[in-house]
């Protein structure tokens, strides 16, 4: 009787081993580290001081010890700032905007260059960056579908419980208003120049650019 | 929000650029952050081990000690560091929590020490990471159980009864814990003996005895010596009834007692006898009567009051109820299945014993438990095949829940053993703690003595004063203040019990005293012995001695000798009584029985607090008494 029980337990032990090997392999693969370029080089390429870069890197390394951020982690981090709604779509577009090399991961250099433009760049640089954010397929034009995606992603971040309650066609109306403002020649797409000119004319937006004061 | 995410806030704010073209209204002004932006390294000195960390790291959790301004209380300006007088090994884990956002529980640390550290640093234990949370919870539960057992043990049985317990409470205590008094122990053993006698009688009365003359067939002893057995049974039942009624009377909550298992067993043990008494001896009910006699065997369960092992077994079975239930259920299922199969397999054969499915149940049970009586045996091949499958599976089904039950029993048994060991050790521990406590209280009383003693001799006073630390000085001063406030004095246990005794005695003899001795006391305006109750008792006794001279004869048990030439005491309210009786302390011819040696009043003018009396001769105060001229230690009666 004891032999029966004994053989039963032995059987389960043997079955367990192969699966453990598989997970070990997976672990090894994620251990690959990436190191950024030197501090001086980054300082030369961006508009940050050494201290600021240090602070940024410490925060970056804390969250991503392996040195790269993949999209999942990126979405997770960004979602923590917007717990009410679903920030995953907007985070996806942001990720693509930061990931200039389009290799599916953001290294510290990409991260810090993007931040440098947004926080310390000229107005034109900021607007160009925003244009690239909106231009999902990177064809140089923003069309209605892309804009609708972006607007919907932003509204998703608000979540369900808003005041006044969110109705279905509000994003569409927002897109229409945007195109009305931006599309000067009414050809259905917005080019980079149209975008920049329209934004510079927009008083509200220019005033809002103060958003980037004191961020770092 | 996780810790490190706070450092991504600048990024999140920068990413808001994507909203700007879409916004219809102006964005609000960003908050102005006046604090210095540059990060600095903070130094944390924990019991000499220096930790360094960025200020931002600590700021991640602003509702903890290190993250809030509370740490400023620990800032040492000379060394420009934060000094914490705590365990540095555990601080490591706490600092790691700030760094990584995960709190880990070190397995080799005591759970309570860890909890205290967390409480000190303002961290809630709930954020312990998943990796360590299970271990933490298990240890905490174990600790709490252990503490609950301790307090339970403390407040139950072994604690001494409060002196003002009613006889009913004492009786209940005697029943529940027979070791408290000899009477209870005697009763315990007597009932045990009678339980045994009753059970043995029940057993023996069915044994066949030699038949009396004129009969051939063997008779069971119960019928041969019917009267003897009946008398024995009656005696046992009387004792059990008496015990049950006593318990019922003494129980603090009668309803709860009547519902308890032991009480039910008691009732079931004695009821058959009474029912048998009242029932008539006719043939119809005698069958039922015989059945009732079976219940007499339940008396053996009364032994569980006397045996802890039985109780543990019962408790184990109760706690393994689910496993037992599973065992029963699976067995029933298997029995029904195999009985059906065997019945249909053996249906055709002639003279088969498998007459019905319920009849096959017996075969299945006997086979599954591997008994194999052989009274029912399959004859067909199919029957034999299924029979063998039945016996193989029986072994398996029974063996599965057994380890669970065994491990449960082992756990409970060890727990019980641990509880017993702890209770035994607890007594020693408590005794040691009590002695240590007594040391501190005695220090104060000792100090008072020394002051009194050393009052005449300034050198020794200085010496004994120097021996105390600054803390003790202030502590004793505090106790003095309390004494002054309440007009009572601190004394020790023995003195107090003596006091109670002498007071009762003093009351007896003081009735006949009069205050006419006041005159004699005018020579000595002071009260004598400054002891409060002692004085009272002493006054009365001395009063009585004074009145002895007037002819009243009394037996004196104790008498305090008053000493002369004592500066007036400042005990206000008590002095009033002392003034009642200003005895002639100068009289030295008081001879009286002395049980306790009086304490000399304080001779130090500054210190009016007298030392505590020494109630029992042989204590060091004896020596002090010899310093005084007027003490008499003669024991005689007037």
TrEMBL record, chain A:
Residues 86-121, 122-157, 170-205 form the EF-hand domain. The keyword Calcium applies. Gene3D superfamilies: EF-hand. PROSITE patterns: EF_HAND_1, EF_HAND_2. One of its GO terms (biological process) is regulation of potassium ion transmembrane transport. GO terms for cellular component: voltage-gated potassium channel complex. One of its GO terms (molecular function) is transmembrane transporter binding. Belongs to the recoverin family. This is Kv channel interacting protein 1 b. It comes from Oreochromis niloticus.
TrEMBL record, chain B:
One of its GO terms (cellular component) is neuronal cell body. Keywords: Ion channel, Ion transport, Membrane, Potassium, Potassium channel, Potassium transport, Signal, Transmembrane, Transmembrane helix, Transport, Voltage-gated channel. The chain crosses the membrane at residues 183-204, 224-245, 324-345, 351-373, 385-406. Residues 143-166, 511-530 are annotated as: Disordered. One of its GO terms (molecular function) is A-type (transient outward) potassium channel activity. Belongs to the potassium channel family. D (Shal) (TC 1.A.1.2) subfamily. Kv4.1/KCND1 sub-subfamily. Pfam families: BTB_2, DUF3399, Ion_trans, Shal-type. Residues 1-16 form the signal peptide. The lineage of its organism: Eukaryota, Metazoa, Chordata, Craniata, Vertebrata. It is found in: Membrane. It is a multi-pass membrane protein. Residues 40-139 form the BTB domain. GO terms for biological process: action potential; protein homooligomerization. Coiled coil: none annotated. Component of heteromultimeric potassium channels. Identified in potassium channel complexes containing KCND1, KCND2, KCND3, KCNIP1, KCNIP2, KCNIP3, KCNIP4, DPP6 and DPP10. Its main location: membrane. This is A-type voltage-gated potassium channel KCND1.
